[in-house]
Amino acid sequence: MSELFFQYLMAGLTYGMIYAVVGIGFNIIYNATGVINFAQGEFAMLGGMIAVSLVGAVPLPVAIAGAVLATMAIGALIEIAFFRWLSGPSVLRMIVITIGLSILIREAALLVWGQQVRALPYFTGDEVASLSIGGARMSPQVLWTVGTCGAMVVLVTGFFRWTTAGKQMRACASNRVAASLCGLPTRNLVTLSFVLSAGMGALAGCVVSPITYTQYNVGTGLAIKGFTVAILGGLGSSLAAVAAGLVLGQLEAFSVSLLPSAYKDSVSIAVLLAILFVRPTGFFAARVAYRP
Amino acid sequence: MRSHRHVQVGAFMAVAVAAQLLAVYSGKAFLLTQLTMSAYYTLAVIALSLLMGHAGQISLGHAGFFAVGGYTSAVLTTLDLSPRRNEEIVGVLARVGVLVERAELYGGQVLVVHPWVAFLCAVALSVTLAFAVGIPVMKLKGHYLAMATLGVGTIIFSVALGTTWLGAADGISGVPAFPLLRNLGVAGGASERVANYYVAFGLLALGMLLLLNLVQSRTGRALRAIHGAEDAASAMGIDVASLKLRTFVLSAALAAVAGVFLTHLNGGIGPSEASIMKSVKYVAIVAVGGMGSLWGTLGTSLALSFFSLRGWFGAFDDAVFGLILVAVMLFAPDGVLTLLPARAAASRSRRTRAAPAPEGDGGYELPVALAGQRPGEEGR
Q1: pLDDT band per the 50, 70, 90 thresholds, residue B46
Q2: Looking at the 3D structure of chain A, how many domains does it have?
Q3: How many interchain CB pairs under 8 A, A with B?
Q4: Does residue A161 lie in a domain region?
Q5: Which residue stretches of B216-340 are H helix?
Q6: Residue among B334, B327, B95 nearest A97 (CA)
Q7: ipTM of this model?
Q8: B99 by DSSP, 3-state: which?
């Protein structure tokens, strides 16, 4: 029983970290624009798919770097083409535009890559390789995923805390007019937020690809989870998103032991809806002193 | 005003009659089938238009309520109770006419719930669900509301897809005709095509009349006040929570009615009716029709549903709706009708009244009705 418990725990941790990274992606754009980007999950899908396409031609690390850069470029293009020139759009309008974009990206991916399920090779070892920890066995890819996502969280937190660009983005997030009066290039900072968020999503999509596989339509599910995590953490806070991501990951993993796995998504969403109804501002926001 | 509405609905029915005659006499009567289906989808869409355009509340789970209606009716009218005939409750229900016997596809006799009773159950279930979900959901705003309705829609979809007795991925088929008059029923046969066309358009006209009456009444004005500024509406003595909830429930009920009839027309229902993409398509149609313009929504819904059902967009069906969403929201957020010169001025004045744009910085402003609770907003 304890072995099984450990397996669920590791599965929950893996998914939880992915959800956290996607959730932080939501937060970064939300902080910069006040808008939830419903196309967030598509960045992870694009990262995985582009890396799979490149990996035949170039070594794995180069393919992943290429995929991340390409997705960042796509993120920048999306911001420049669709958001930069709008003046004062309403939230409803922005929600609908990003939903439309997510459909377009998904359909474009279907056109380019077809319906085939793809995956990157395992970073170390292969699908049968396993590590033994505490009597339970798991794939080294789990460590890659958790490690990469953990590193991303630390780096992005550091970026916002200590670098000039990060501080400028925070200034822009807390008061755009004041930031612009201080001479900050607010429009470019918004573009940067899309680039950053696209890059994080793409890298997460790459590291998890050997375990969960990638298909043109995985973005929507990831977006719902990431969105849930971002809101559960109280929109805007990275560390809270990590905590929320881990909670959601564990919830999902352990729900499988009680209910058919077809309902896995429903269970996590239902629990989270209940939380949303009780406390719509999230659970962790108040305790985090800074945003993001 | 009252006669004005009746003239509009009358004109709409006249156009519907003309379209039917044109289709039949040009030898293209088969087109009526898709028009009939479009009419049912349109009933669901105009209900969403009331919620989104007038009350200003987005719902990304509308297809879920449509499917709850359709699935409930499909289950009750196909689930054979004859093996349990000896149980007392089944016997009583059969004697009072709640259960009826009919011949199934392969000649055997089955004992199922009467379609009218099933219809009432479907609407009741949908209304109950809308109440249960609506009470907490309608307190949410902006992104939270979008997320919550998306979540509800996702749950309904995955339950439909994952439950064996709901047919899982195959859905439910073999749903019988829905009896209306002696030899008129809602069913998909070619012989009943014209009659069913009029049933669907009659129902749509009724629904439209109901909604037009509603939006031009005291309630409709209160809804628009909520859309404009929720706090101000509340200060004027409007019971915002109750009104939003009732609008949500009404839109869910109309969607369920549409779902029931379309299920009987098609003889079945599948999980794709509950999918998020379907909900998004409804939102897209409302957006094109102009949030708040019931006639605009009705027209675009009939046209887009018809083209989609005819397969005009081929494999690009989803992509077309995505493109429509993006293009309309970028260039004509108040609906494509506002691009006409005469409407443009009216729309401009309406927009400035509803949400004055902040000057200078080109930032993303949050109209009161849709703004999420955003920490740090006070600084603006």
Answers
A1: very high
A2: 1
A3: 176
A4: yes
A5: 218-228, 230-235, 240-266, 276-289, 294-309, 317-331
A6: B327
A7: 0.80
A8: strand
